[in-house]
Inverse folding.
């Protein structure tokens, strides 16, 4: 028989642990508040790259920077996304740096849990978030249905069904809380703060944020820091001179190929299939990477560096995302303006490009002869239409599978990058006879040399401290020593939930 004590005891322990954690957080908070009037803390993207949620408190107001979803192992990330360790109704407003899922995906979770303030972003970021959030609601619904069916089919396996965290009606409520403002337009998000977005050069609409707190203390948030010379986008800007900076370090221990080398290599691959009649298969993220590849191919054609061969963009979401790019020419760099916009040429539309929506058209591509280029999703070749194109071409020696993005561990994309000779698609094994080409020139995050160069643009005497977020620990440790080597006064790796104090009087 189960005793009452055996049920109550674990509950008491759990309760006690929560009280202790809450007590120690409150105690730490009060201690920090004794000497400081500005408080910073993060509930995500600490020693990891997902779940960005950073907070700043001053003058009785709380601003949250980003509200991203955690990604990774299903059970663990579901728990982290489902149970917020703070009260969303106490956040006065959210400033959103960009639309990527790991920065915007949890906005409806905030709204469902009582957040009623404004969500400030650039107009392009709002539009990108719109696509990302609806897509996420749809995927969560489908995932949940699949798990429910499986649980009913195998009742003895005790399978857990994960309910969607939000649906499309929650997304609509969230979108109604957006207030959009362009880069370089100062605004007052809440009393005691002024805010200004600056171009981050990471994805369409992406921004970094400069907050002026109280009488003039400047605190910067890099968001995801982009790179110079990326196609379409403006280069990352330098904000005003800062007193404190919260900086990302995704690639704090890595160096990339130069952006310029990407076009050259892509041209080489196209010329090769023109000779052999093969097909180029490119798994690409639907937002940004797909448009960058289309843009580069268009430019290479205009410069007569590659012949015109059919290009298929086979992903309904990529088609929608591309239409958003078309209407946000305010985000384009000088080159895109001069080569395309000023001549009334659409960078993403030309004779030999075909945007594919229907499943029938998608299947028809298979019966067409090469040479051709197929750009399809998902970006890491885990699901979606790209799997059909890989299945149909991977055993063909003339095909070239071109990897243009980051491939996480255990994904099909990573297996291809690592040169596996036999892979499984839809439960069947295929020999990898196709050539695999890897282009890492298109990364949208600055590497550590690029981060150092960007940080050097600030007055390092004034900059008292850099707080590092958004990176694996190994990457942030390396970045810390790189930053100290160029004369940054102090660099701290932010710990999850820890309270950091700043005194606005002392900080001036
Ligand atoms: Zn991003």
């Amino acid at each position: 028989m189960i005793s009452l004590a055996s049920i109550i005891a674990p509950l008491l322990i759990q309760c006690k642990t929560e009280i202790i954690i809450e007590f120690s957080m409150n105690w730490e908070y009060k201690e920090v508040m004794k000497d400081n009037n500005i408080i910073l803390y993060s509930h995500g993207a600490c020693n990891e790259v997902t779940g960005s949620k950073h907070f700043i408190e001053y003058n009785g107001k709380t601003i949250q920077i980003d509200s991203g979803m955690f990604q990774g192992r299903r059970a663990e990330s579901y728990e982290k996304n489902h149970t917020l360790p703070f009260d969303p109704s106490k956040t006065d407003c959210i400033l959103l740096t960009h639309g990527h899922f790991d920065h915007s995906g949890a906005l409806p979770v905030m709204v469902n849990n009582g957040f009623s303030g404004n969500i400030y972003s650039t107009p392009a970021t709002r539009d990108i978030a719109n696509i990302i959030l609806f897509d996420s609601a749809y995927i969560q619904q489908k995932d949940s249905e699949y798990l429910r069916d499986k649980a009913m089919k195998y009742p003895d396996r005790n399978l857990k069904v994960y309910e969607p965290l939000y649906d499309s009606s929650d997304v609509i409520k969230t979108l109604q809380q957006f207030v959009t403002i362009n880069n370089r337009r100062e605004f007052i998000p809440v009393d005691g703060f002024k805010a200004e977005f600056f171009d981050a050069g990471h994805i369409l609409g992406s921004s970094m944020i400069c907050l002026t707190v109280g009488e003039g203390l400047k605190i910067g948030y890099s968001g995801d820091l982009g790179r110079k010379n990326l196609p379409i986008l403006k280069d990352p800007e330098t904000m005003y001179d800062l007193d404190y900076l919260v900086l990302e370090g995704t690639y704090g221990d890595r160096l990339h190929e130069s952006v310029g080398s990407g076009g050259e290599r892509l041209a080489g691959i196209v010329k090769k299939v023109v000779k052999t009649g093969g097909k180029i298969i490119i798994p690409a993220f639907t937002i940004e990477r797909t448009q960058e590849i289309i843009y580069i191919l268009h430019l290479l054609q205009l410069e007569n560096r590659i012949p015109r061969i059919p290009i298929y963009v086979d992903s309904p979401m990529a088609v929608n995302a591309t239409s958003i790019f078309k209407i946000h020419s305010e985000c384009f760099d000088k080159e895109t303006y001069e080569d395309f916009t000023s001549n009334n040429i659409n960078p993403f539309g030309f004779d030999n490009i075909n945007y594919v929506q229907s499943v029938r058209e998608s299947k028809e591509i298979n019966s067409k002869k090469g040479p051709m280029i197929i750009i399809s999703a998902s970006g890491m070749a885990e699901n979606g239409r790209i799997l059909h194109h890989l299945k149909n071409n991977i055993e063909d020696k003339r095909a070239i599978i071109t990897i243009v993005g980051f491939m996480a561990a255990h994904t099909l994309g990573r297996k291809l990058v690592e040169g596996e000779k036999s892979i499984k698609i839809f439960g069947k094994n295929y020999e990898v006879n196709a050539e695999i080409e890897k282009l890492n020139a298109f990364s949208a995050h600055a590497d550590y040399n690029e981060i150092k160069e960007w940080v050097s643009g600030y007055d390092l005497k004034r900059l008292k401290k850099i707080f590092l977020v958004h990176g694996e620990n190994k990457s942030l440790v390396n970045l810390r020593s790189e930053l100290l080597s160029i004369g940054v006064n102090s660099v701290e790796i932010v710990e999850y939930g820890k309270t950091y104090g700043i005194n606005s009087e002392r900080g001036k």
